[in-house]
Write a structure and sequence with these properties.
4 strands; alpha+beta; single chain; 2 helices
Length: 131
């Protein structure tokens, strides 16, 4: 009389295949969580950099300058403002500036950075001698 069922080897092979599949899924979830954490850090830094860039551009008068600023959130901003194309804009009533902002922060043991660049035009103001 033949008995129906699985042999011990068949059960062991099925468990091994199941274990490999579950391990692969767990590794995928772990990688996804790391990617989400990394993208969250970059998103927060990009928003902070954009806010600082808006703050810099809100100044009525821009001048060539370079400075470093630290925030309470752990970000370091390096700002570089350069006047560009002065030979092309000398006859115009506007000046053209290149503004570059690099934000740096720590993510674990690694240092990360993100750079924003833009152009800004400002109306020229003639200095009047009051003496």
């Amino acid at each position: 009389m033949k008995e129906k069922g699985f042999t011990l080897i068949e059960v062991m092979v099925a468990l091994a295949i199941l274990a490999v599949g579950i391990t692969s899924l767990i590794q995928l979830f772990g990688g996804s969580l790391r990617s989400i954490g990394l993208s969250e850090g970059y998103t927060k830094a990009a928003l902070a950099a954009e806010a600082e860039l808006r703050n810099t551009l809100s100044a009525q008068h821009l001048k060539e300058d370079s400075y470093t600023k630290r925030s309470d959130a752990g970000y370091t901003y390096d700002v570089l403002i350069k006047q560009i194309d002065t030979d092309k804009t000398s006859h115009l009533q506007y000046e053209l500036f290149s503004v570059e902002l690099t934000i740096r922060w720590k993510a674990g043991l690694k240092s990360k950075s993100y750079t924003l660049k833009t152009l800004a035009a400002r109306k020229k103001y003639d200095l009047v001698n009051t003496s």
